[in-house]
């Protein structure tokens, strides 16, 4: 049998202990050693280790003793470092607020599925937040599996309460106009129109530069995004999804609005939308007089919502993106075109979010099939009558 138990007597105290040794598969010339006061405990431990060796899922007990806090540090240098800056900032906040207080000093090898289920059962937060905490915890423990600290991920595929789906508010063309015209500053008003008729994300909109607009072809090019990282505005390449970098077609009326708003001989590098100094949507030190979205939303957008019907005054800025999808679908755009327009890498995501807006088209398809069948019935002699 691999490994053995050896009796040890201390020359200083005379105490008898039992030392269990098992070969380390990663270093055949070395052993993993653990000392016990009782022989039967040593033999029980050795039996467990040998069984794990035979199954092929043995792990070094010393690795399993790594505190969760140390695994987090490694995860931050590996997996978290590859995330988008805003996502990394959000995940780090979850680690600090939820995970380190709960598991910081816990040896990762002692974390069980039951421990984690009890943690989420007692977690006093919304279902949406709990799901985000689970995603981060699972990512960290998955890193532990890859490093050989864990045999399996006890935090994966947890059955948590499903977050309630937020009601999607979309506007009609008349309501978009009412919302935009309630905005005082012309540049801000134009931003509302562009958001509702292009479906750009907020960061994509505020990062647009003059050179991104081609009025001759009536298109605008999405190349970058404006994001907030640790309180600072940063321009990044548009890499949210594979389709984020894209060219969006403009309706003629919107191209005309953009043409009328451009100053004479503008710099190609100038931002298309800027915030007035010290006014709507800007803080001292923001680059290129860029719009800070959270300030713009609070100072400009939210007050303008009062021009809408009462049932729609809670519409979020992101709902303007949903509005764009709704307007496209109502005018017959198929799901592939909508996905490309919005910058979704996978049309299945677009269908999942906006599929409920297509029922009227389902009815139209059924009517088309009905018409085809009836036309055939009028021109083709039935088989049973041919004889």
CATH class of the largest domain: Mainly Alpha
Q: How many domain units?
A: 3
In DSSP terms (H or I, runs of 4 or more residues), the helix count works out at 16
Q: How would the global form be characterised?
A: elongated
Question: Which range does the strand content fall in?
Answer: 5-15%
Structural classification: alpha+beta
Descriptive key words:
single chain, 387 residues, DNA polymerase, domain 1, 3 domains, three-stranded antiparallel β-sheet, 47% helix, elongated
Descriptive account of the structure:
It is a single chain. Strand 1 (4-9) and strand 2 (16-24) form a beta hairpin. Strands 1-2-3 form a three-stranded antiparallel β-sheet, with helices on one face. The chain has helices spanning 39-55, 61-64, 68-77, 85-103, 113-122, 127-146, 173-181, 186-198, 202-206, 252-261, 293-304, 319-330, 335-342, 347-354, 359-379, 383-386; strands spanning 4-9, 16-24, 27-36, 213-214, 219-222, 224-229, 232-237, 246-249. The chain starts with a strand and ends with a helix. It contains 16 helices and eight strands. The protein has 387 residues and is α+β, with helices and mostly antiparallel strands. It has three domains: 4-58, no CATH class; 68-146, DNA polymerase, domain 1, CATH 1.10.150; 173-359, Intergrase catalytic core (hpI Integrase, Chain A, Orthogonal Bundle). 47% of the residues lie in helices and 12% in strands. The model has no long low-confidence stretch (mean pLDDT 86). It is elongated, with a radius of gyration of 31 Å.
């Amino acid at each position: 049998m691999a490994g053995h138990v050896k009796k040890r007597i201390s020359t200083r105290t005379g105490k008898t202990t039992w030392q269990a040794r098992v070969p380390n598969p990663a270093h055949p010339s070395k052993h993993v050693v653990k000392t016990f006061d009782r022989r039967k405990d040593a033999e029980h431990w050795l039996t467990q280790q040998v069984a794990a060796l035979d199954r092929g899922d043995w792990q070094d007990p010393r690795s399993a003793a790594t505190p969760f806090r140390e695994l987090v540090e490694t995860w931050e240098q590996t997996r978290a470092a590859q995330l988008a800056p805003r996502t990394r900032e959000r995940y780090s906040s979850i680690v600090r607020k939820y995970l380190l207080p709960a598991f910081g000093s816990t040896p990762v090898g002692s974390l069980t599925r039951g421990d984690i289920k009890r943690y989420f059962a007692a977690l006093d937060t919304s279902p949406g937040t709990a799901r985000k905490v689970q995603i981060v915890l699972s990512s960290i423990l998955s890193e532990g599996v890859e490093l050989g600290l864990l045999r399996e991920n006890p935090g994966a595929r947890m059955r948590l309460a499903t977050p309630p789906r937020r009601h999607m508010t979309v506007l009609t063309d008349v309501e978009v106009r009412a919302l935009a015209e309630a905005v005082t500053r012309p540049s801000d008003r134009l931003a509302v129109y562009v958001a509702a008729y292009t479906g750009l994300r907020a960061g994509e909109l505020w990062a647009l530069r003059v050179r991104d607009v081609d009025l001759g072809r009536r298109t605008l090019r999405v190349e970058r995004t404006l994001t907030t990282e640790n309180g600072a505005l940063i321009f990044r390449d548009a890499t949210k999804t594979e389709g984020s970098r894209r060219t969006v077609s403009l309706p003629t009326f919107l191209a005309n609005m953009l043409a009328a708003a451009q100053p004479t001989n503008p710099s190609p590098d100038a931002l298309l939308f800027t915030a007035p100094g010290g006014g709507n949507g800007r803080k001292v030190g923001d680059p290129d007089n860029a719009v800070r979205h959270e300030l713009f939303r609070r100072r400009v957008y939210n007050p303008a919502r009062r021009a809408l019907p009462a049932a729609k005054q809670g519409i979020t800025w992101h709902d303007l993106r949903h509005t764009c999808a709704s307007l496209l679908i109502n005018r017959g755009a198929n799901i592939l075109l909508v996905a490309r327009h919005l910058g979704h890498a996978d049309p299945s995501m677009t269908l999942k979010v906006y599929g409920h807006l297509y029922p009227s088209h389902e009815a139209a398809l059924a009517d088309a099939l009905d018409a085809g069948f009836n036309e055939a019935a009028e021109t083709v002699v039935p088989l049973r009558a041919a004889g």
